[in-house]
Design goal:
The longest helix has 14 residues. It contains 19 helices and no strands. The protein has a domain of about 90 residues: Leucine-rich Repeat Variant (Alpha Horseshoe). The chain is mostly helical.
Length: about 280
C-alpha cells in the first residue's frame, strides 16, 4: 500500500487510507499516523477517523508513536487532537508531552490534552488549565479531578487542604455556571474540606439549577451533621433535577436517621425519578 499512500493524486491516497482501515495489515497504524500530516484535508481527515476507529486494536509500538508525535505539530487541529487521543489510548505519551498542548490555539486539542493528562494521573499539570479561556476546557478540568480522586487521596498532603487541588477552589468560584457546577460535583468524589463548606452551602441558593445540583452532589460527601440538614431542605427545591441530586446525596448518608426521614418524604415527590430513587434508598 505504501506507493499508493505516496501517490501524487490525493484521491489515490484517500483510497489507500480507506483500504488500510478495512484490512488493517501489519504496519497500518504507523502508515495511518503518517497520513495525519497529508497535505490534502480529505486524506488527513480520513486518517484521523481511521485511527480513532482502530485505536483499540493497534499495537502500542515505537513505530506508531513517532508519526503520532510528529502529527502534534500538524497545521490541522483535527490531526493534532487525534494524535493526542491515540497517544493517550495506547499509553504512548507522558505528562510533559501532553501538558505542552494545553496552550494549543484550538479548543478541541486542549480538551484532548486534558483527557490525556487525566489518563496519566497528572493532577499538577492538569491544574494549569483551570484558567483556560474556553468554558469546555475548564469543565473538563473539573471533571478530570473527579476521575483522579483516588490519586489525589493518596497524595492529599501534596495538594491543597484535605486533598482538594487549589485549582478546584478556583473553579468552584468560576464566573461560568457550568464550570461551577462541575467543580462542585467533583467535591462529591473528593470530599468537602471544612474550608469549602460555607461556599458549598451558599451554592444551594444559587439561581442556576445546575449549580444547586452540583452543591447537592458535593454534600453527599460532606459530614452528615452538616450535609443531611441542608439536603433535606433541598428536597423542596422547585427543580426536579436538584431534588433528584439531593435524594442521591442523601442516599450516601442512608445510615443516618435524619437522612432516612428526609428520604421518606421524597417517596411522594411529583417527579417519577425522584420518587424512584427515594424509594430505593429507604428499602
Amino acid at each position: 500500500m505504501e506507493p499508493y499512500l505516496k501517490d501524487g493524486d490525493a484521491a489515490v491516497r484517500l483510497a489507500a487510507v480507506k483500504a488500510l482501515t478495512e484490512t488493517v495489515p501489519p504496519g497500518a497504524g504507523p502508515a495511518l499516523a503518517a497520513a495525519l500530516t497529508d497535505g490534502d484535508g480529505r486524506v488527513s481527515a480520513a486518517a484521523a477517523a481511521s485511527l480513532r476507529e482502530l485505536a483499540e486494536v493497534l499495537a502500542p509500538e515505537p513505530e506508531l508513536r513517532v508519526p503520532l508525535v510528529t502529527a502534534l505539530t500538524a497545521v490541522d487541529p483535527t490531526a493534532r487532537g487525534t494524535a493526542l487521543d491515540v497517544l493517550r489510548a495506547l499509553r504512548l505519551g507522558d505528562t510533559a508531552l501532553f501538558a505542552a498542548h494545553l496552550a494549543d490555539p484550538d479548543t478541541d486539542v486542549r480538551l484532548a490534552a486534558v483527557r490525556a493528562l487525566v489518563s496519566v494521573d497528572a493532577a499538577e499539570a492538569l491544574s494549569g488549565a483551570a484558567g483556560d479561556a474556553a468554558r469546555e476546557v475548564r469543565v473538563a478540568v473539573a471533571r478530570g479531578f473527579a476521575a483522579l480522586a483516588p490519586h489525589l487521596d493518596r497524595d492529599r498532603r501534596e495538594h491543597a487542604e484535605e486533598g482538594t487541588p487549589a485549582a478546584l477552589h478556583r473553579l468552584i468560584h468560576d464566573p461560568d455556571v457550568l464550570v461551577r457546577a462541575a467543580a462542585l460535583e467533583t467535591l462529591g468524589a473528593l470530599g468537602v474540606p471544612h474550608a469549602l463548606l460555607e461556599t458549598v452551602t451558599a451554592a444551594l441558593n444559587d439561581p442556576a439549577w445546575q449549580v444547586r445540583t452540583g452543591a447537592a452532589t458535593a454534600l453527599g460527601a460532606a459530614a452528615p451533621d452538616h450535609g443531611v440538614p441542608a439536603l433535606a431542605e433541598l428536597l423542596r427545591d422547585a427543580d426536579a433535577d436538584v431534588r433528584k441530586a439531593a435524594v442521591l446525596a442523601l442516599s450516601r448518608h442512608a445510615g443516618h436517621e435524619d437522612a432516612r426521614t428526609a428520604l421518606s418524604t421524597a417517596v411522594d415527590d411529583p417527579d417519577a425519578d425522584v420518587r424512584a430513587y427515594a424509594s430505593r434508598a429507604v428499602r
